[in-house]
Specification:
Radius of gyration: 20 Å
Number of domains: 1
Number of strands: 0
Distance between the termini: 61 Å
Strand content: under 5%
Shape: globular
Largest sheet: none
Number of helices: 6
Helix content: 55-70%
Structural class: mainly alpha
């Protein structure tokens, strides 16, 4: 009883030169950044952007704070829309995952396709959402951060250095 063999095929309409360029750029980026960042940091980033982590956190924040529940409903629905769209696009393009990255697979093996990146789409979604929230409620967020930082010794100078105040 061996391990199940997983076979994936590329979408036939992609021309071979495009697939070759994609594979070479992916390998170049992998070899460029692998020696710079420690593995634990890469795994931490991978897990933090995983849907199986971010969705339960979002749902628990929705249930834990009734005063902000009206803000979290679009947030949760956006998570589900992101999952559906990324899944549909992955099934359409069927770009297989690179084989040279076997150690980074604990969080991403929900499927065998890597385009588009669900992690990247969630990070862009959260960055856009926080930017829009900060634009509309910047004073409220700055007050919250300032109160939190005052209780954490040493964080005030770090936050001040990043221009949060």
């Amino acid at each position: 009883m061996g391990s199940p063999e997983i076979t994936t095929t590329s979408f036939p309409s992609f021309p071979k030169p495009l697939i070759t360029i994609d594979a070479s750029v992916s390998l170049f980026l992998h070899t460029l950044f692998k020696p710079i960042f420690p593995i634990f940091l890469l795994l931490l980033l991978e897990y933090s952007a995983d849907f199986r982590f971010s969705f339960p956190v979002s749902l628990s924040l929705f249930l834990a704070s009734p005063s902000f529940s009206s803000l979290f409903i679009p947030f949760i629905l956006s998570h589900l829309l992101d999952l559906a769209l990324i899944g549909l696009i992955k099934l359409t393009f069927r770009r297989t995952r690179p084989h040279y990255n076997p150690n980074m697979s604990p969080a991403v093996r929900a499927d065998n396709f890597s385009f588009p990146s669900g992690h990247a789409s969630r990070v862009m979604f959260l960055a856009t959402l926080f930017h829009l929230i900060f634009q509309n409620h910047g004073g409220l967020i700055s007050d919250f951060i300032l109160r939190w930082v005052k209780f954490q010794p040493g964080f005030f100078y770090l936050a001040y250095g990043f221009g949060l105040f």
